[in-house]
Each structure stands twice: as C-alpha cells, then as structure tokens.
Amino acid sequence: MLLLLLGCNSEKVGDLLPASFDLQEYGAILNKRVHQLRILRPRPDHFTVLVRRVPNCTEHGAYGCAVDHFFSKYYPHSYHSCQMLYDAKEIGNLQKQANDLVTRIEKLRNKSTIGKTGKDSLLLDVSQEHETLTQHNEKLQKLLHKIRKLKTKDALSGKELPTGFATFKYRRSAALAAQSQQHSHPLLWITEKAPEPRNVSWRSLAIPLRMLPLIKIAVVILATLLTLFFAVIVTGVQGIAKFEKLEKWFPPAMAVGLIPGLSSVLTGYLPSAVLKGCEYLVPFAMLAMAKMGGSVSKSKEEIKACNMVFYFLVGNVFFLSLISGSLLDEIGESFTHPSNFPSHLASAVSAQADFFVTYILTDGLSGFSFEILQPALLTWDAIVLHTCGRGEGQDPYLFSIPYFRVIPSVSLSILIGMVYAVIAPLLLPFLVGYFCLGYIVYMNQIEDVYETTYETCGQFWPYIHHYIVVGISLMQVTMIGLFGLKSKPAASIATVPLLVLTLVFNEYCKIRFLPSFRNNPIQEAAELDEEDQKNGEIEINCQNASTAYVQPSLRRVNLMKPKANLTEPLIASV
Amino acid sequence: MLLLLLGCNSEKVGDLLPASFDLQEYGAILNKRVHQLRILRPRPDHFTVLVRRVPNCTEHGAYGCAVDHFFSKYYPHSYHSCQMLYDAKEIGNLQKQANDLVTRIEKLRNKSTIGKTGKDSLLLDVSQEHETLTQHNEKLQKLLHKIRKLKTKDALSGKELPTGFATFKYRRSAALAAQSQQHSHPLLWITEKAPEPRNVSWRSLAIPLRMLPLIKIAVVILATLLTLFFAVIVTGVQGIAKFEKLEKWFPPAMAVGLIPGLSSVLTGYLPSAVLKGCEYLVPFAMLAMAKMGGSVSKSKEEIKACNMVFYFLVGNVFFLSLISGSLLDEIGESFTHPSNFPSHLASAVSAQADFFVTYILTDGLSGFSFEILQPALLTWDAIVLHTCGRGEGQDPYLFSIPYFRVIPSVSLSILIGMVYAVIAPLLLPFLVGYFCLGYIVYMNQIEDVYETTYETCGQFWPYIHHYIVVGISLMQVTMIGLFGLKSKPAASIATVPLLVLTLVFNEYCKIRFLPSFRNNPIQEAAELDEEDQKNGEIEINCQNASTAYVQPSLRRVNLMKPKANLTEPLIASV
After folding, report:
1. How many angstroms away from the CA of B157 is the closest CA of chain A?
2. What is the ipTM of this complex?
3. What would the 3-class secondary structure string for A337-367 be?
4. Mean pLDDT across A95-103
5. DSSP B129-197
6. Given CB 3.0 to 4.6 Å as the disulfide criterion, which of A158, A171, A208, B391 pairs with A46?
C-alpha cells in the first residue's frame, strides 16, 4: 500500500515529463510489486482460488462436495481442500444482538461497581439492577445457544452458497487453476485469483452471479446520473439553503438575526458551504454505490469508487468551471459536432487559468489541513458515541487510507497541471508546492495515522496511470484547439499524430504490464514454491491458507475484548 | 468442417426467426464442436502449446534449450519435449530447385523412353540427351548433398527462431499451460493453443512478434481503403474498358468490328464483366492481405479474410446500391449527423427492394452455377499447366472449400433477407429458394469436390453469428427509420430498446459461448486423457504429437511420387 502511494508521489514529480518516463515508472512499480509479493511469501491468497457458480453435486446434493469431487479429479496431485461460503445473515443478526446485550450487561455491571465503590446507592436499586442483569444474562445464554446450534455442520449445510475457496498444495497449481477455463460451459466453475482474506468482500460474494450484470449496469447508470445532474442538484439545494429562504422554511432561524453580523456571515458562506459539503459527500456516495456493485474484494470496490469519483471531478470541477452553459448541453454539443470540441475547449481553458490557480491553492491548503485535522471523522465519531453508544472495546480510530477520496483529487490536480503546462506555465510552481505539501501530509498520514486493512501490491497503479493518460490526451486535445485558434493549422494537424501516439502508448502499456497486475505468473509462483520447499514451509503455508477464508460471522468470536476483566465463562466465546 | 457448413445451413432456415433460436443454434454448434473434439481424440494439437518470444538460454545460447529448461522446471511432471522453428528459407529454395531438376530429368527420361519405343531417333540425339541427363543428375546430387548438410543439427542450430511447439504428456497440462501467463514480463514466453499441424501457417510464425502489430494495422488500413475506394477503382477501370476507348488504346481491337454484331455484344457486356471480375477478384486479394497479417494458423487467415470480405460486400453491394452519392460522402454524412441515419437508410431500403430480388436471383443462379462448373479454376489450371509446367506427380484438383468466398456471400444474403423481411416480404420466397439451392450445391461440393485441408471444429461459427447479429441490428435500425418516416414516433422509439436488447444478447453470447471456442476447457481435456489412459493410447498420442510439428521444408521429402517407377536411389529421399 505504501509502495503504491510512493509510486503515486514520485509520479507527481514526473507528471510533466514525457511519456517515456511514464513507461519507466510503470516498469518500476511492476518490479516493486513483484518484490513485495516475494516478501509477503506466506500469503494465503497465493494458494487459493475463488470458485463461483459451482453446480450442485448429483450424489450428495451439496456444493462443497461438488468442489471436492471436481478439483480432486482434475487437479489430482495438487488440490488440498475447500472452504465454502454460507448464507450467514441469520447468524450475523443474532451475533449483533448478542453483542448489544453484552454491551448492556457491561454497562450495568460498571454502574453497579461504581455504585458499590460510591456507597451511596439504594438497596432497591441494586436488587432491580441485579434482576435485569440476570435477565440479560439468560437472554444472552439463549442467544449463544442458538448461534452455536446454527453453526453446526448440519445447520450450515442447508445454507451453502455455490461459491467457495479452493486451496491448493502449491502456488503454481493455484495460479494455473485461476487462469484457466474449467468447464466447457464457461459460466460454470468460474475460477479466479482469490483476494487476500482481509480484502474479501463477503457480502458481495453472497450475491448470485446471475444478478451481477444487472446490478453493475444499475450502478454505472446511477453514477452517471449523479455526475451529470450534480450541478442541478447542488444549485437546487443551494437555493433552499440561502438564509432568506431558510427563514421562511425554518422560522427559528430568525433568532440568528438577533446577533449582529452573524446573519451576513451566514448569507455569504452558507451556499459555498453547501457546495463543499456536497462535494465532500460524493466520494462516500460513490463508495456506497461501488459496494453495491458486487465486486469480489474491497480493493476492487475502492478502485471502482476511485474511477467514478475521478470522472465526477473531471466533469463537475474541470469541465463545469470551463463552460458557461450546463454540462449536459455541452456534452450534447460535443456529440453532434465533435470536430468543434478542441477549439471550444482551448478557448475555455485559456480563459480559466486564474481560477485553477486559486482552486489548486485552496484545495491544497484546505484539503490537506482537513486531512490532517480529520474534523469530519471526529464529528462523526462524537455523534456515533453519544447517540448509538458504541461498544467500549472497539478501537475508535482505525481506518484505512481513503483511496477513493485521495487518488481522484490528486489525479485531478495532475490533469489540471498537464492541461495548463503549455497554456499557463505559471500554474506549475503552485502545483509543485501542492504536491510537496501533499507528499509530506500523506507520508505522515500513511505512516502514523491510517492502518493497512488490506494489501493489494500496487493494484491501484494501473488506474492512476490511466488517469494520467486521460490528462495527457486532454492536454493534447487542448493544444490542437489552441493552435487552431492561433491560426496555425500546420501545428494543429501535427499534434494529431501525437494524440494517436499517446493512445497507442496506453494500449502498449496495457499489453506490456497489465497482465502481471491481474494474474500470478507461473514462473513467479513456482519460484516462491521452491523457496518455501527449501525452508520446509510449504505445508504450513498451505495449511494456513486452508483455514484463512472463514466468513466473519462464522469465526470463533470473543465477545469481550481482552482488556475487559471479566471472569464469567458464558460470554467468553461461542 | 462439414459440421460448420451444416450449422450455417440450418441457420439459413432459421435466420428469420427471433434471437432465441440463435441462442439454441449457438449451443447446438458448441455441442457439435465438443463432440467432434472427442471423436478426433488423437489430435496432436491437444498435447501441444505454441510458445513465442522465447528468450535465449544464457548457458547454451539456444532457444530450444531455453524452452526445455523452462518447461521442465515449471511443468516438471508433464513436459515432454519441444520442436523449435528454424529459418528454413534457404533450404526451401534449394528444395524448389531440386524439384525442378527432378521434373526436368523426368521429362528427358520420358522422352528417351518414347524415343526408344518409337525407334526413329538418331544416335546423336540420344547421346546428347544422355549427356544432359547425367549433367542434371550431378547437379541434383550436389543440391541434395547441400540440403542434407543444411539439415544437420549443427547447421540448423544457428538458424533457430524464438518460436517453438512444446509437447506435454497430458492434454490437461497442455491446456493449463496454454491458458496461463508464464513470466512476469507478459510479452516473454507467450503461450497459446497450438493449431492443428496441417493448419499451421509456417510463414507467419517466422515473422518476429514485434513486427506483428504494425503489419496488422497496415492490413486493416489496406482493406479499409480497398472497401472505401473500390467503387472509384471500378468506375475508372470500366471507363478504360469501354469498347470505344479500347479501340484507341489497343488498335488491334478494331478487328472485332469486322465481325458483325460482336462489337455491340462487347460494348454491352464489357463494363459489367469488368465489375463482376473485380468483385470476383476481391476475396482473393483480401485473402492475400490476410495471409500477410501474420496469423498463427491458416484458418485464422481465412477467418480474417471472411471478415474483410463481409464488410466489403456490406459496403459495396448493400450500401452502394442503396445510396445515390458516393460511399465516402455517405459515411461522412452519417458521422456528422448520426441521428439522421435510420430514416435515411429506411427510405433508401424501401426504394431498392426490386433491385435486391434481382440481385439474389442472379447472384444465386450465377454464383451457384459458377461454383459447380468451377470455370475459373479450370482456366487457371490450364494456364498453369501450359506455361509453368507443373510436376506430373501433383494432384490437379485438391483444394479446400473457399470459406472466404462462400461465407461472406451467404451472410450478405442473410443480411438482405433480414432487412427486407419487414419491408418487402415478397423477397423471402426467393431467398428461401436461394438457400435451398445453396444447400444442395454446397453439400455436393463439400462431400465430393473439396478436400478437408484442416479441421477447426466450428471455429468459423462465432463469426457467422456475428454477421447475423449485424444483419438483425441493421434490420432494427431500418425499422426505426421506417416508423419515423411513416410518422409513427411511438413505434420508432419502441424499437430502440429492441436494438439495445439485440446488442446485449450478442454480448451474452460472447460471454456464454466464445471462451469454449477459444480455449480447451480443463474438464474436457482431463476426460479425454482418462479415456486415452484406459485404452493405453496416451503415450502413443503424445509421441505422435512430439514429431508432428516439423516445418514442411525440414520434412523428409520423397522427391518422386510413388506412382513414378524409378529405381535409382539418388532421388529417393534426403
């Protein structure tokens, strides 16, 4: 993860250099990825293949049995075992109830101990509390018994899903199985590289594969609609949020008028605060949509959200500040008269250089200070703590770095830098300042604040590369238009091959590097196997992999965190 | 092969039924393919993987050695052996010379035997002939010696190419190796399913892989230019070929004027004969271009030619007869105003129904009679025989069915039928007649005339399916335009989702069926292995595969056909 951001940051410095630099960058990041994969040798995902659309076993009527039969028949020397997925919604709900109960019991007990030490409690109160405590305990007992019953093999076998994780004895076999077509019906026995256990999106895996295309289309349509109509929505909300209107809708706001000066501050800042607030909420909305989309892993969900947020920002920050009319009109115009697009863009871009200098300055300063101070997180945490009452045992501040917010905004700055590198080079010093500040802030955040919740070994890079290519292409389109406006048709036409070359270069990068980000090459896998065999670790690693993929709701849960000093056995484990 | 055409023919009957029929058809053809693959069990291509971009072995400096090292290391239990490709141009040239010499010696010997039996030859003549015969024999001896020397291992090792065929002990391992990425550099050790030995395009495999993208782009551009400017070329050639102009350019043509009536026949038929001739030549030109494109197998070359010819016909027969202006103008118009396209198309289509009835009748009758009588083939054969003097031993008439000519013209008829099914249903009986006649003609041709030169097990089908989908989409676009013209906007808009559904259906077909046409599924491969092992044939099959992929120029060649009654050992073999 760190290495990805490092790659991203060194790219920031290199974003103004030509494409050949980009190629080196891609190669360097691929090398880092391979190196990182070697370091993280005992990873269970190397040994495991995700199998979906498993048909039912004709003999025993179970999916797990079918997986065992299939793989032990067709991968006889290398198949180890399988872990199936179960429909564990019920267990999850019960566990949530049990957790709630435990929290309540905790609170009651704390109260009574405080009462005892305080020695000012009434006897009646104590007896009442004791009663509720025993009631709660009984309830908890019942719940735990129910959960234990649901977790037995017989109860689970009825809730098997046609999805599972097949573990192999060697990395090589797992890599081979993940990359090949198993059945002549290509939509049965779909195999793919398993994500890391902490990276698995368990909820998405439970969605039937038949539904996925529909859900994906729906998500894309939703995200497109949000991008296109965001300006409309924001204008509407801003209209309502004007102080004069607020007074109409919500008469108590009149009280603000009593404090002199406050009303003018509110009138001035409210609309822009609403805009910023909406913009701040969009990444979270996109992430929520991406999570609905049924990706196999959390990293893929974040990558999807990254894509959607990037295009949202390009549309609603870059293009919307360039154009006078609405985004929709402009898009319609570009579709009907595509040849006018470059000159249109060029004239708009050159008029808006000052705006983007301001944008980068304010976004840089406000964004980075926001990132360091984490006000939103603190507020949210305070709200949750004082309303829902979070369990004491939970760690308050362990989040992973929000890629879906960071990467698109940095990529947008790269894009702005690209486009203005030729037209208004004075913007570049500001951008370099922005990137230096960003480097310092994010290095600090990554090292000291955020936790690594999963490790993708640079899977985000190809997308960052794509955003940079979008930036370069947009720069070249602007140049074509600009030369046209300055009545230099020869220069304008000479830039067209440059654009074509950029696109060809992008295709080459995809062919040259992308497969190694997607697949686990056989040579690498076999070499890691060999190293493991030398150290005698291969069996342990395989054994670890074969137990790593257990759904969160089916894990042995310790209902109390270790710091709790409870001695009663009933809440120790299920 | 037969099964492909059968599939194609049953499709002809079903082309007017809805898409669900198409789905069944695809499934049925996939089943036939799987069945056929089972029947053809001992095929060497099942055991073999084509490896390209092999790096040089660091120890021994040879490619073959590198392949052996790599696969025996990473596929330790299943790798059998490898057959490398060599740069055999020189040997090929020498062999051609040797063949020529043998033909000449044959002729001389025949002459002398005829002379002896005729007993009217002069002694001087005989001795002279004997002298040239011994001279030729000496030359041949020298040539054969040279060839033998070039074919030794030492001489060949210097001419190794970084391409080879790796044979595995089991089908399963070959299928796994073909479908996976071997090296973390995805452009090294590129593996793919090997084509059948008779299907390999040896000349293309010798082209360095780096050059291929450039060549492919060049071929696509050439084909596009030919399609776009064909009308211009033909009009130009027709202008020259008018009888009045011919008299100017080629005065001896005046002699035609002496025969009464001939000149008027010529004036009438010459231009249309030129058009038909050009159209007849196009498929061959396209095939030649496709052959330059560096495809791995002959079948892929033919498929490429099919694609190019189909789009050529759609452009130059279907669209060119619809529109009044030039094709280029029309394409430009559609690009700038895409929304006008359907109504434009609809009005043009409904005006030209009569023309297409005539087209299908004449094309059907003339095309099929041409196919049965094979006049072009006979003429070509006569020319070759009397000018270059083909070797006596060669079989004169063994060609495979020209898919690149047959499939596009049949697909075009399907397309015309689709488009006119709604507008002018009277065309359909003619079309049914055309297909029935076609079925009879081609069944006869396939069974009795053409030879099977390679077996693809239905690889052509996905392309035919694609052509049918193009036809259906075009029909729906026409319908949208037609409803618009008849001022029924509701019906027009209601047809748009139908078009979208057709495209979605096409995507579904690609996901559902295409992988099984491209890959060898592991289950299938393992089951065939098992059957072979039961019969104890697996080792023989693997052994056969390990010697099947020898370049034509490196094979042990019998310079004389068995029917020749020669006893002299020198020309027996190399």
Report:
1. 26
2. 0.82
3. CHHHHHHHHHHHHHHCHHHHHHHHHHHHHHH
4. 86
5. HHHHHHHHHHHHHHHHHHHHHHTSHHHHHTTEEEEEEEEESSHHHHHHHHHS--SSSTTSSEEEEPPPG
6. A171
Please name the member of A70, A73, A175 whose beta carbon is closest to the beta carbon of B180.
A175
At residue B251, the pLDDT reads: 74
| Minimum distance, in Å, between the CA of residue A222 and any CA atom of chain B | 19
pLDDT of residue B560: 52
pLDDT digits (tens, 9 = 90+) for B308-360: 999 999 988 888 777 655 555 666 776 677 777 888 788 888 777 888 888 88
| Dmax (CA) of chain A | 96
Select from B82, B87, B134 the least CA-distant residue to B108. Answer: B134
Which backbone phi and psi does B532 adopt, to 5 degrees? Answer: -60, -40
Residue A572 has pLDDT above 60, yes or no: no
CB B51 within 8 A of CB B165: yes
As a whole number of angstroms, the distance between CA B521 and CA B517 comes to: 10
Residue B300: closest CA among B517, B5, B554: B517
Separation CA A2–CA B237 (nearest Å) = 67
| pLDDT score for B54 | 92
pLDDT of A219: 93
A233, pLDDT greater than 90: no
Contact A522 B77 (CB under 8 A): no
pLDDT tens column, A436-468 = 999 999 998 888 888 888 888 889 999 999 999
What does the pLDDT read at residue A396? 53
Q: Across the strands, what pairs with B166?
A: B49, B82
* Cβ–Cβ < 8 Å for A554, A91: yes
Instruction: Quick: pLDDT tens for B16-28.
Output: 334 555 678 888 8
Q: Amino acid identity of A208? A: P
Q: Which chain B residue's Cα is nearest to A338? A: B336
A405 close to A309: Cβ distance less than 8 angstroms: yes
Per the structure block, which two tokens stand in for A395? 């760690």
Dist CA A46 CA B404 (whole Å): 46
Q: Calculate Rg over the CA atoms of chain B.
A: 28
Q: Which residues contact B483 (CB under 8 A, 6 or more apart)?
A: B489, B491, B492, B495
| Contact check, Cβ <8 Å, B182/A521 | yes
Residue keyed to tokens 């304008």: A492
Residue whose structure tokens are 């496709």 = B290
In which residue are the tokens 């009277």 written?
B426
Answer whether A192's CB lies under 8 Å from A50's CB. Answer: yes
pLDDT at A114: 62
Nearest of A454, A450, A455 to residue A399 by alpha carbon: A450
Q: Which member of B180, B184, B516 has the closest CB to residue A179?
A: B180
Distance CA B89, CA B97 (A): 13
Q: What is the mean pLDDT of chain B?
A: 81
CB contact under 8 A, B522 and A186: no
Q: How far apart, in whole angstroms, are the C-alpha atoms of residue B287 and residue B303?
A: 9
Taking alpha carbons only, the member of B176, B191, B193 closest to residue B48 is: B193
A165, β-bridge pairs: A50, A83
Mind giving me the DSSP string for B385-427?
HHHT---TTS-TT-----HHHHHHHHHHHHHHHHHHHHH-TTH
Q: Which amino acid is residue A569, in one-letter code?
A: P
Contact B73 A526 (CB under 8 A): yes
Predicted confidence (pLDDT) at residue A110 exceeds the cutoff of 50 = yes
Instruction: Give residue limits of the domains in chain A.
Output: 2-38+324-519, 90-153
DSSP E strand boundaries for A153-266: 160-168, 190-193
Task: Enter the DSSP assignment of A553.
Answer: G
